[in-house]
Write a structure and sequence with these properties.
The chain is of the alpha/beta class. Helix content is 39%, strand content 12%. Strands 2-1-3-4-5 form a 5-stranded parallel β-sheet. Helix 2 runs antiparallel to helix 6. It is elongated, with a radius of gyration of 22 Å.
Amino acid sequence: MAVIEKRSLKRKVKQLGLLEHKFQDNVVVASMDKLLGWARSTSPWFFQFGLACCAIEMMATAASRYDLMRIGMIPRSSPRQADVMIVAGTVTMKMSLRVKKLYEQMADPKYVIAMGSCATSGGPYWQHGYHVLKGVDLVVPVDVYIPGCPPRPEALIEGLLKLQEKIQAERPLTKKTA
C-alpha cells in the first residue's frame, strides 16, 4: 500500500514542474480580483423588504428547511449593513419613495433582487389600480428578477446563486476604460 502511495505522490510532484517545493501548504495562487470576487460573493448580507405574500416565501427560504445561511446569505434589518435588497411583493407609488430611500442608504456595492411578479411587473394588480408600480425597476436598478406568484423558495435560492455568480464575475480592482 505504501508503494502505491509513493507512486501517486511522485506523479503529483511531476505535475507541479517549476512550482515544486516553492510553496508551503495552504497557499492560494490567484489574482486579487478573483479572491475579492469570491469573498464578496460568498458572504452577501441581505436586507429583507417584504411587502406582500412573497415575503412569506422569503421567510420560508430563510427558515430551517432551506437555510439561506448555507450559501452565505445573512439577513440584516438595517439597509446600512446590507449588500442585497430583496424586494418581495407589491410596490405601490407611495411605497416607491421609501424603497428608493432605503436603496440609497445601502453601502456600495449594492444589489437588488425583484422577487415575484408584483415586484417585477406589477403583477395582477397594475391593470386595475393606478396606485401600483409597474415594476420596482422603475425606481431602483434590479440585478436579478425572480418570476412567480409567489415564487417558491427554490426559485429564490436559484436567484441568489445567480447573483453570487454575477458578483464573482465582477472585477473591482481592474481599471475600467471609458
